[in-house]
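Quick start: what a row looks like.
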Amino acid sequence: MKLKIIVDSSADLPIEMINTHNISIIPLRVQDEFGKEYLDGINLRSNELLLRMKNGEQFKTSLPSYDAIFQTFLNNSEYHCIYLACSADLSGTHNFAQLVKLDFIEKYPNSRIEIIDTRSVSLGIGVLVLELIKDIEKEESFEKILENVFENINKIQHVFTVEDLQYLIRGGRVGRFAGFLGGMLNINPIMEVSEGKFKPLEKIRGRKKALNRIIEIMEMRKNIKKESIGVVYGIKDDSVESFIKKLVDNAGDETILINQVGSAVGVHTGPGALGIFFLSK
């Protein structure tokens, strides 16, 4: 049985990981305030987007095109595909892909495509992919592979902070009062993705304290097994460098995925985002 991993670009996977494991990426679309449309990771790189956002430009996101999803399925028709999609509560991509799959199966009835709502985003999906790769390399049965995916979805943790909640507010991800509080009181909110949705966790005054607190939360929640950790950041500065160094120093031999947030996710989190992703106890 030949398996193929598919994700959408909200997974923010490092390019080395994509190439090493031959992972297919379905790009989400991003529009700037002048109406120009880009494909996430193809003709719009995240660092360019984040710098433009820092200079005041506004962007919005939309689903992948029908053709992008259909063509990805077609290009991998000789495989049994597992598509780990962005949380259905954060994006319509999962549900749209299900509709495309119905059309695809009608034309190619022997195709095997599993589309899974990961209830995750960014390197939360990346951690799930890493664990999936381990099971594939161990030559687990397909049923066992799927069982482990769903078990890990129930354990996946996303803990992150942003410097400005306005980006999440514009996308309808958090309430307006939370944005006012963050902007007026120099609060760096710590948030999580729980049951597929953004939820506030703690309010910390000052970025350094917020970043230190994120590591503390991970140490309290993380599974003691040597499983993967994901780290995603916006524009890299000294605080990000210090955070990554501290995490790497403490992590031992655990696999750590580190990447800049992609354009589709960065539109909603902004240049000052930083988050970690791991499996809970």
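That is the whole record. The chain has two domains: 3-29+65-153, 156-279. The radius of gyration is 18 Å.
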